[in-house]
Amino acid sequence: MGEFGIQARLVKPPEHAAAEASQGDLGATMVYSAARVRRDTAEGDQVAEKPVSRALLVSDGKSFVIDRPRAVIGRSKRCDYVLEDPNVSRRHCELQLRGADWYLVDLESTNGVSVNGQRVTSTRLTPGDQILVGTSSLKFDVD
């Protein structure tokens, strides 16, 4: 999900502009970042801004960046963060950005969610929190 841009330019500029073009960066790759995420609703198109902060989930030395206001964690391939753990429900829990704070919400999973050793149904997360989903341990941080 995101946006991309296409920029057209002449491969062979007019002769009077050849001197200007030789100083430019013709053929350079330009990277566009999605400034907004679009979602369709029953009321029409609604545009949501990207979160001010990005959540990071660290597991086995690998970081996963969550740069949208909601992200589902679970075993299903349709989840935003997939855990290959038979003790994890298909849709186990969700990270939610509320204002400037990140929250973890259990989605009525079979085995529940623990944060820093405490079983929770919903809690505000702080950087460094240890999340246990099934038998998978994740460290929460903010970018």
Walk me through the structure.
The strands form three sheets. A six-stranded antiparallel beta sheet has the order 4-3-13-12-9-10, with no helix packed on it. Strands 6-5-7-8-11 form a five-stranded mixed beta sheet, with no helix packed on it. Strands 1-2 form a two-stranded antiparallel sheet. Helix content is about 5%, strand content about 45%. The two termini are about 20 Å apart. The protein is elongated and about 70 Å long. Strand 9 (about 115) and strand 10 form a beta hairpin. With about 140 residues, it is mainly beta. The protein has one helix at about 20-25, and strands at about 35-40, 45-50, 55-60, 60-65, 70-75, 80, 95-100, 100-105, 115, 120, 120-125, 130-135, 135-140.
Q: Flag low-confidence runs.
A: 32-45
Number of strands: 13
Mean pLDDT: 79
The arrangement of helices and strands along the chain is HEEEEEEEEEEEEE
Largest beta sheet, briefly? 6 strands, antiparallel
- Contiguous helical run count: 1
Helical residues, percent: under 10%
